[in-house]
Design brief:
alpha/beta; 331 residues; globular; 47% helix; 13 helices
C-alpha cells in the first residue's frame, strides 16, 4: 500500500532499498501538484553554495544552477562555451552539499551535454551523483552561447532529437542500474537562432514525445508561449525563463500560470542583485566613505548563514573528544 502523495517511481525506488524519494521524484511531484493547482513555481537561479542557501532560506522549493551565473561568478567569463563540464559540476556539488535537498530541489544547467553522446551520458550521471533533481539539455551547437548573445545557432532537428533521446536513455539506464534519477528538461533555442515558431513547436512536441519531463523554448513572446502550451497539451510540463533587461516587461507568476507554465526561471536576478550591492559598497569605500548599514549584512546573520552557530553548538557538545596528534596519540 503506497502513500497516495508519492508517485509510483518514488515507491519503486523505496522498494529497491532507497528509504526516501529521490530529488527527481520529489520534483516530479511538485510539478504534478503545480499542474493540478494551475500554479507556476518561481525558480530563482543560484551561482554558488551561498546563493543556493539563501534561496533555500527564503522558502523557495526549486532553484536552477545557471551556467551564465556560474561562468560569471566563478571565472568572470561570458557564457559562451568557455566553462567546462568539470568546473560546472564542481559548483553543482558544492551547491547540493550546502542545502537540504529535501527542502530545495535544484535543476542544473547541462548546456548541450558538453559534447557527443558519451559526454551527454557523463553529464547525466555526474549531475545525478552531485544531488541535482534535474538537468536541462539544449539543442544549440557545441560550444553553446548565452541565448541573449549574438551568434546563437542550433543543430538540425534530427540531431536535436537524437541528443534528447540520448539524455533520456542515459537517465533511464542509470535509474535501472543505480536508482539515481533526474528530471529531464529539454530546451530549444531555435527561436533565438531566428527559426520560425513552427520549428519551435515541432521540436518541443518531439521532445515531449520522447519522454522529456519538462519542455522549454527560449525566446518566445507571451502569445507564442501560449500557443506552445496549447500545442503540447495539459499533461506536458513547460517553463519560461526571464532576464531583467531594458524595455522588457516581466511576466508575473500569476500570468505565467495562466499561460500554462509550471516553472518560471529568473536566471540572473540573484547574481545581478549581488553585483549591484558589491558595486555600491566598493564605490563608497573608494570615495573615502563606508557602505551604509542597509547595504551590509548583519555580521551575526552572516556567521549564522555559513554555519558558525551550528559549528559552535557541535563543538560544545563534543568538546570532551580529545585532539589527535600526527603520531596518532591523544594530545
Amino acid at each position: 500500500n503506497r502513500p497516495p502523495s508519492l508517485p509510483l517511481r518514488s515507491v519503486l525506488l523505496m522498494d529497491q532499498g532507497h528509504p526516501h524519494p529521490t530529488p527527481a521524484a520529489r520534483l516530479r511531484t511538485l510539478l504534478d501538484d503545480a499542474r493540478e493547482a494551475s500554479r507556476c513555481e518561481v525558480m530563482p537561479a543560484c551561482h554558488d553554495a551561498l546563493s543556493a542557501r539563501l534561496i533555500e532560506r527564503a522558502g523557495f522549493r526549486v532553484a536552477f544552477m545557471s551556467g551564465f551565473a556560474v561562468s560569471a561568478s566563478g571565472l568572470a567569463l561570458p557564457d559562451a562555451g568557455l566553462i567546462s563540464y568539470g568546473e560546472q559540476l564542481s559548483v553543482g556539488q558544492n551547491i547540493c552539499a550546502a542545502i537540504d535537498t529535501r527542502r530545495l530541489l535544484v535543476i542544473g544547467d547541462g548546456d548541450t551535454g558538453f559534447g557527443g553522446s558519451g559526454n551527454v551520458r557523463r553529464t547525466i550521471e555526474g549531475y545525478a551523483k552531485a544531488g541535482f533533481a534535474g538537468v536541462s539539455i539544449e539543442d544549440q551547437v557545441y560550444p553553446k552561447r548565452c541565448a541573449y548573445s549574438g551568434g546563437v545557432a542550433v543543430v538540425p532537428r534530427e540531431e536535436a532529437v537524437a541528443r534528447v533521446r540520448c539524455a533520456i536513455a542515459a537517465r533511464d539506464e542509470m535509474r535501472r542500474r543505480s536508482g539515481l534519477d533526474l528530471v529531464l528538461v529539454a530546451r530549444t533555442d531555435c527561436r533565438r537562432a531566428e527559426e520560425d515558431l513552427d520549428e519551435v513547436l515541432w521540436r518541443c512536441r518531439a521532445f515531449a514525445a520522447l519522454g522529456a519531463d519538462v519542455v522549454y523554448a527560449e525566446g518566445l513572446a507571451p502569445d507564442e508561449l501560449r500557443r506552445l502550451c496549447v500545442s503540447l497539451g495539459p499533461t506536458v510540463h513547460t517553463m519560461l525563463a526571464q532576464v531583467e533587461r531594458p524595455g522588457v516587461t516581466l511576466i508575473s507568476q500569476t500570468e505565467a500560470a495562466a499561460l500554462g507554465c509550471r516553472l518560471s526561471l529568473f536566471g540572473l536576478t540573484v547574481l545581478s542583485a549581488a553585483v549591484s550591492a558589491m558595486t555600491r559598497a566598493l564605490e563608497a569605500m573608494a570615495s573615502g566613505g563606508h557602505p551604509s548599514t542597509g547595504v551590509l549584512c548583519d555580521f551575526g546573520e552572516l556567521k549564522a548563514l555559513v554555519g558558525f552557530d551550528a559549528l559552535d553548538a557541535w563543538e560544545e557538545e563534543h568538546q570532551a573528544c580529545p585532539a589527535v596528534g600526527q603520531d596518532g596519540a591523544a594530545e
